[in-house]
Every structure is written in C-alpha cells, then in structure tokens.
Predict the structure.
Amino acid sequence: MSLRRVLQQGFQYLSQLFNHVSQRLLAQLDSKKRLWIVQVDEGGLKNQSFIVDEDNFQQPMDWMLKRHYSVTDVEKVNNMKCAQVVSVKLANAKHSLIRAK
C-alpha cells in the first residue's frame, strides 16, 4: 500500500471522526428546551436582567416555582410563544419575560 493511499484513508477517517464529534458537541451545547430573558424592575437603580435556560432545571417551570411565582403566572408563562412578552407583578417588582426559544 502506498504512502499516499494510507494518508488519504487516514484523512478520511479523521474527517469522519471530527464530523461525528462536532455534531455530538453541538447537540449537547444547543439548548433543547425553552429560553427566557427576564427583566426585573424594582424601581430606581435596582433593575436586573438574566437568561433562564429550562435545561438547567429538573422540571419545566421549576425556575418560576423557586422564585415564588403564582400558579396563574406560571401557566401564563408556560403557554408563551416565541418572541412573546408577558409582564407580571411579584412582590414590589415588575417582571417582564420574553420567550427567546
């Protein structure tokens, strides 16, 4: 077997291996569930924003339950479509949620 042929086969093997590994990594990195951008306005300079990735929680909407959202608010946010915005009042703050995915 010539050196050229061995190199071609090695290159093909490495190329297939790279494609397989990169596809697996991308699948793991891609969020499989929903994403929200949450902006909390407490008035004045006490505003905060964060991204919620549902993949990081045990159950759907678990992140809302941990922050003590009402059942009605959880249902409202659970039924959101992509790019939809919902605002809810929680304690003394206005929470604006945008469904990103």
Observations:
- The helical segments are 3-29, 62-66, 71-78.
